[in-house]
Amino acid sequence: MTSASPAAAYQRRIFRAKRAAILDAALDCFLERGFAGTSLNRIAAAAAVSTATVYRHFPSKDELFAQIIERTFLDGAAESLDTLPTGQPAAVLPQIAERYARLILTPHFQPLVRVLIAEAVRLPQLGHALEQRGHGPFLAAVKRYFEREHALGTLVVADPGLAAEQFLGMISSVVFWPRMLNDQRRPSAAKVERTCEAAVAAVLARHRPG
């Protein structure tokens, strides 16, 4: 098998660089002007590419916004939760809690949610994008984790979906939602740690067998 030609490798690098530039420009535009106030023409100008190039990478503004959400959640790596060891909930649940807290404290997550809230009634597809491409996969991965522990008998979880929502909700209610009303209310690292520890303790107290 022959390796890719230098020209093909160069084209792939250019393609990836333009895609990243479009995503960066779109994020800035959405945060500054909102979803409705941002056009693909404006994004193209901000990214220093043609509108045709934007369409080549993203078929619609909705898909571009969804890709921004997906990229924001990549650090959470929902898929990586499926590789965590089973049978050790006291050791693994703190890792999940810390990953989730880190994710919802990323600089762009809160402003993106504000854009979603502002547009959600008129454009419900934006909320669907968050569920399908962002928070939803992470929540589903936590649900699968509880299912695996329940099957092993290390946790007794009658409703893994509800348990996952409650677990993440205990963290976001302290770490994330207060900041939606007041940007100055970013929790200290110590408070984030205490919140994660309390959420883990609550899950173990509720779902440990016996």
Automatic annotation (TrEMBL):
Report the Pfam families cross-referenced here. TetR_C_7, TetR_N
Tagged with keyword Endoplasmic reticulum: no
Is the keyword Transcription in the record? yes
Source species, please? Answer: Salinisphaera orenii MK-B5
Where in this chain does the record put each HTH tetR-type domain? 16-76
List the GO molecular function terms: DNA-binding transcription factor activity; transcription cis-regulatory region binding
Q: What residues are annotated to bind DNA?
A: 39-58
Which Gene3D superfamilies does the UniProt entry name for this protein? Homeodomain-like, Tetracycline Repressor, domain 2
Keyword annotations: DNA-binding, Transcription, Transcription regulation
Instruction: Write the protein's name.
Output: TetR family transcriptional regulator
